């Protein structure tokens, strides 16, 4: 779930630091480059969160099955 903080930090937390016209990268103001990079990194962060959540959910389900089987005996 901590991966979901990455887009927030990139958009809101660091925006005051990147809000300047200079330097220019490839003829584009730095702020636009920053926002474009944040937009590309957001699906990566969401995907990592989903992958981690699915792994934790699978482990919890396996533990629950083990406990249920142990309680039946």
UniProtKB/TrEMBL annotation:
Keyword annotations of the record: Membrane, Transmembrane, Transmembrane helix
InterPro entries for this protein: DUF3311
Pfam families noted in UniProt: DUF3311 (PF11755)
Keyword Transmembrane helix applies: yes
Transmembrane domains' residue ranges: 30-50
Name of this protein: DUF3311 domain-containing protein
């Amino acid at each position: 779930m901590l991966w979901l903080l990455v887009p927030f930090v990139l958009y809101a937390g660091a925006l005051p630091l990147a809000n300047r016209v200079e330097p220019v990268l490839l003829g584009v103001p730095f702020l636009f480059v920053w926002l474009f990079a944040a937009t590309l990194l957001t699906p990566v962060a969401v995907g990592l969160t989903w992958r981690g959540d699915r792994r934790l959910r699978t482990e919890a389900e396996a533990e629950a099955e083990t406990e249920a089987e142990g309680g039946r005996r």
